[in-house]
Every structure is written in C-alpha cells, then in structure tokens.
Amino acid sequence: xxxxxxxxxxxxxxxxxxxxxxxxxxxxxxxxxxxxxxxxxxxxxxxxxxxxxxxxxxxxxxxxxxxxxxxxxxxxxxxxxxxxxxxxxxxxxxxxxxxxxxxxxxxxxxxxxxxxxxxxxxxxxxxxxxxxxxxxxxxxxxxxxxxxxxxxxxxxxxxxxxxxxxxxxxxxxxxxxxxxxxxxxxxxxxxxxxxxxxxxxxxxxxxxxxxxxxxxxxxxxxxxxxxxxxxxxxxxxxxxxxxxxxxxxxxxxxxxxxxxxxxxxxxxxxxxxxxxxxxxxxxxxxxxxxxxxxxxxxxxxxxxxxxxxxxxxxxxxxxxxxxxxxxxxxxxxxxxxxxxxxxxxxxxxxxxxxxxxxxxxxxxxxxxxxxxxxxxxxxxxxxxxxxxxxxxxxxxxxxxxxxxxxxxxxxxxxxxxxxxxxxxxxxxxxxxxxxxxxxxxxxxxxxxxxxxxxxxxxxxxxxxxxxxxxxxxxxxxxxxxxxxxxxxxxxxxxxxxxxxxxxxxxxxxxxxxxxxxxxxx
Length: 521
Ligand code: GLA
What we know:
By secondary structure, this protein is an alpha+beta fold. It has helices at about 145, 175-180, 185-195, 235-240, 270-280, 300-310, 330, 350-360, 390-400, 415-420, 425-430, and strands at about 35-40, 50-55, 65-75, 75-80, 90-95, 100-105, 110-115, 120-125, 130-140, 170-175, 205-210, 215-220, 225, 245-250, 280-285, 320, 340, 375, 405, 440-445, 450-455, 460-465, 470-475, 490, 495-500, 505-510, 515-520. The strands form five sheets. An eight-stranded antiparallel barrel has the order 2-3-4-5-6-7-8-9. β7 (about 110-115) and β8 (about 120-125) form a beta hairpin. α3 runs parallel beside α4 (about 235-240) and α9 packs parallel to α11 (about 425-430). The longest helix is centred in the middle third of the chain and has 14 residues, at about 300-310. It is globular and about 80 Å long. About 50% of the residues are buried. It binds alpha-D-galactopyranose. Alpha-D-galactopyranose (GLA) binds near residues 211, 212 and 322.
C-alpha cells in the first residue's frame, strides 16, 4: 500500500501502541510525562517554544489539525505531538541538526524537522517511510485548539440484550486496508457492483463498509455531515441495498476519529438516528481520541453508550468495536451490545503482521459464539504484500478463527488467484459454521501448527499451518484429533478433493508459509 496517508504509513501495527501512551497533552504546559531530551539546544531554537497547530487541508473539504507542543528548558527539550488531534504521542530520536530540531513520533512513521519561521514554525514532515515529504507552516495554537470537551460521565453499566445479528461471523468488505482516505462514493458503488459480479455476494459477502475519512463536521443542529467525497449517504445506501447488499460506516466515541475526522462524542444517540435514517446496517466504532477523555476502566461504559443508542435507533445495525483488544474486550463486548470486537492492533499486508495477529488468537477461542466474534482485523488478501500461498494461509487461519471475513482489497481489480481465495466456499463454510465455535491450536512444533475447529454435526476442520519458509511433512493420528475410528470422509478444502481416509491418520506435505485445510467427518 502506498497511500499519502500518514496512518497507513505507520511503521508498527496501528494503535496497539496506544496503550503505552501515558502522556497527557495538558494545554500549553508539558506535564513531566512528555518525551525529554538532554541535548545542547541550538542557538536559535528558543523560538520553538510553544504549542503549534499544523493544518492539513484535504480535497474532501476537511482540514485536519495536528498539535505540536515544544518546550526547551536549559539543555532539555520536551515535546509531544497529537497527529490529526487523535491521540497524544511522545517524540523519539530527538536531535539537533544544522540548527534544526529533528524528531520522530513513537509508533507512527512521521518524522519532523522544525525551525522557527517568524512567529510561526517551519516544518518538514516526512512519512510513508521517508517516501513522502511535505513542508508545512504551523501557527501558534489558540486556546480553543487545546480545549478538550468535558468528559461526560458514561452511563452506569448494564447488560444490553443481544441484538440478534451476526449469528455467523460478518462477511463483507471494508475500505481501509486498500483505499485509506481514497475511499469515496464512486469506489463504494463500484465495489458493491464488483461484489456481485465477482461471485463474492453469492459466496456470502454482504457488508460494504466505509471506514474512516467520510466525515466533514456537524451542522447547526449538531447533525453529522459527510464530506465532499460522499454527496448523499442515503442515496448511496439505496444503491448498495439495490444490489442486495448492506452498507456499513465508521465513527469514534471520541471527539475525532483515528484519522482526525469528526467523531460521535456527545452525539451518540443523534448519530445512531442519522445512521438509521440513511439506511446504515453496520457501525465500526474506533476508540482513538476517546483515550484523551476516558481511562481504560471506562471502555465498557463508553461502548455501551453507543450500543444502547444503536439498539434504540429503530434499525438493526451490527456493532463492531475497534479498540485493539484493550481492557479484555472479549469479556464484556457482548454486554456492551457488540457483535464483534477487534482483538489486535492494525494488520499490515505482510506475512509477519498477519501471523502476529492471527496465530495469537487461540487463547480467545472461548469468547466467540453466535452473535459475538473476536476480530483479528480485516483481510489483506489481494493487496499485494503476500504470495497466493501466504494469502491462502491468511484466509484459512481467519476461517479457523471464526473471524469476520472483511475483504480489504480492491474488488474491482482482483486477480483470479485472489478471487478464488476469497470465494472458496468450502473454506467459507468452516468460518460460517452454525456452531460458532472458534478453533485453536492442537499442537505447535518446529514452526508447524495444527489447528482444530469443531463444526456442527460432529465434524471438524483441521488446518496444518507451516510457518517455516521451507516445505514440511506433517501428520496427525486420528486418536490425537479425538476421533476413535477412521473418519467417514476427509476432504481437502483447497484442492476441492476427497482424500482417501487412512485408518491411522493423515499425512501430507505443506509448502513453506502454506496450509492444508481439511474437513474431517
Ligand atoms: C485505526 C483502526 C483501523 C482504521 C483506522 C482509520 O487505525 O484500527 O482499522 O479504522 O483507524 O483511521
């Protein structure tokens, strides 16, 4: 992915690092927690002191605001950056260079080179692993820029009833992994068309989900207004529904989303009603700037607020929590009205990230059930960073995990390999099995993991994952699977062929980074 969008350029998975962010952006003052550097200050650098606002106007009409606070005291520099106003991030790797102050920010791929420019701050910002560089002028921040809204106390905890949705893991598409901020009305319509024409809809994919960057702001009545990329949300929902599909949207319980766009804070009921009026069927609700207002102990209550609002809005809306697994969300997600919850930081389109997100999930198996799913993040299949073999592994693992199957690629331009992986109905049947049981590892040895998922009717899905680069021979004796006698049928779900069931067990050869996925009856 090569988007000119800083979040996508993050060098580490998403917001998993947010838990480590303890610093508070305390108005004009740096309270001790900011990153501290003992370094000789360049002569002209005293002009850096202050809190600065760096604006980024977008084609969609939105202006994003990043706040940067800098203070120098003797030989120390303290600084904190709030990219797009979303989360507060300490700086790293601070140094003086040629009279400029140079630093990066933790967990994001942003790097700054700053120097005073009259009353302003001249900034050279580089991101996308240094591939993109822009010059920005930051101005002194006004008091209003630094003002946090008062933290409205979240509701008293109660157990919300199940909404009856997502009896099997939700299937669909989400714009973020491929499009980032480049999603617009046209992309969504064309994606809906492609979902139908590619055979994905027939294979079970239903939700067409718009992720972050659709929001503009609020009108005089406080109604959320989409930006220029989405001229008419209701008409768009009509179009998607007309294809027999459903439309999803994204917001945050904080004042702004992870990308710095308008969040639902203080407008939860109003936004739920708006979504219902537009014809929205799915909401992904992303924590980010809520961390500026609430400690982790209030996660459940804050998510419950939108859960209640959705249940009262008069339209069935799937509720997807995105808070990267903080606060053991799997333990209270259902009570907050959730149908699914992210359990990890953001997936990236590479083997290591996919493995980190997917293979760590076995411990959460008991929290998955019809209506309530662990979500190790959206699929990267078809985005180009992994081989077809690796994408087959990725897809098989998600199916074994009873994970939501949200394609994250460009459905309008899929290779035949990608289409075949995403529409493998035999693998999808494992994911969508009515029992709703999540698989877990039976054994892990020498980079080979054997995973088992119980299916309805006493069948089992068995996956042999080879995490090594080289091919490996694998075998499994039926008694180790808890099967007393020879199974009546064994089927290879990627070769789409029955396998002669041997009396003792199964053995085969798995390619490097590959998988054998079996249905054992
Ligand atoms: C966070 C989420 C991502 C995506 C972006 C959008 O990083 O974890 O899935 O929604 O925000 O800004």
